[in-house]
């Protein structure tokens, strides 16, 4: 069985044909830069995949998208794609695959689902897994009792918008002190620059942290503390077995993961929290595509 | 079909025979004060129920217990019952009902399950419900996708031990600034007394708050803020439909519920959080017994 997986990001679209054992048969990627009609980019990226694996062979489509989105209505309004507001992406792909299921979830949810399906070394049938994407924002998704948990309106997993600091700075979501205001790439860069760092972006900040520049290291430890609070909060509520971290900021590696694991270990109170394993993604950028495929593949 | 429900509290044991429509056929309660052998109290409270509904008619038993507990091993170690450490309560009741299922969950989990099963005005098949017990501690439980969610080790729902204030006071659990350090009855009383209040307990504090004593009202607003943070955190993660609040402190009524609803409305950022309904328990003290019964009743 083969399905179409589509990943709608803020700067590019990706698509793949995925087998039911997780094998990626064909893939394509199209940058959005300079495009005024993103739906043309969507048709192009899907067309490249169906050029290799005919649409007639695809038994459904799973879509992971940057938010906000409305999985019930099947529409997306990605913050970084102003031309799409309530764009009916499920309907658009449904026209290409008539009569076959098309499902939509958030990019963080798809990443979590992909890591759970293909990234973990062993499958835990009753596992409780949180996947986190630490990048331009902080997103996430949940697998509970061995099933993707998307929530009644499809919005579960918004770990970037839980409170890490009630007295913290305002968040674009309308609340204050959200994890995202402390641990997203842009918020780390903003904080470092306000404290004397002169670099440009999160990648440079990670390099400086690795090279021992104090303020850069502090920016990562501050983000790690916020992420640890979020992880322990989710674990106290959900009795998690495992947290998998991906995304551009997480790609920094030990400068994030070391202080993060230390903060989780230091602040874990209740006994059952201490069995939690926090690991970096095993799938990298494929996690989102595999998770999107998993939305429509039998498990 | 009739099952036995048992509620193991820190100061009393309760038991009931419960029908599969939620009708309570017989009930008993035994205080623990002055007892050195709590298992005798357990046999006594169950014996009073089986005196009215014979044990042969009971098709299983559900137990809700104060924590900590180990639902996998079937043992309980309630903080306020020092004579019980790893007491094998599932085995003890299994001897009374040989060959029939005996299940154990936390008291907060049972309260949530009872409210979901019998307390809500309408059943929401795919509902996501958080039940909270605000009392000597702050506990809770979850119903997700229309099923009780207890977690891989049975410890889901520990909402009293999520962080409300990272710079807050130490919590007996080992972490700092847990919701329980701000919103449990004893923590509210401690804070009020440190700020000039001279009353004795949470009940007196609620009366004073209702009578307009400023420091008492502030103690409730402070607790309400912490509970609102916890509720919005759980909702961002789990896309909750509803939160039901019970327990001794919640029985104070509007002095807690009014500032709590206001804080939830004020701090709800993301759009999907705004549909959340926060209500006081509809079942009162029966919620725990009904939820314990629901652990073994077909749903």
Automatic annotation (TrEMBL), chains A, B:
Family per similarity comment: Belongs to the ROK (NagC/XylR) family.
Organism encoding this protein: Planomonospora corallina
Bilayer-spanning residue ranges: none
Top-rank taxon: Bacteria
Protein name: ROK family protein
Pfam families, sorted: ROK
PANTHER family, alphabetized: N-ACETYLMANNOSAMINE KINASE, ROK (REPRESSOR, ORF, KINASE) FAMILY
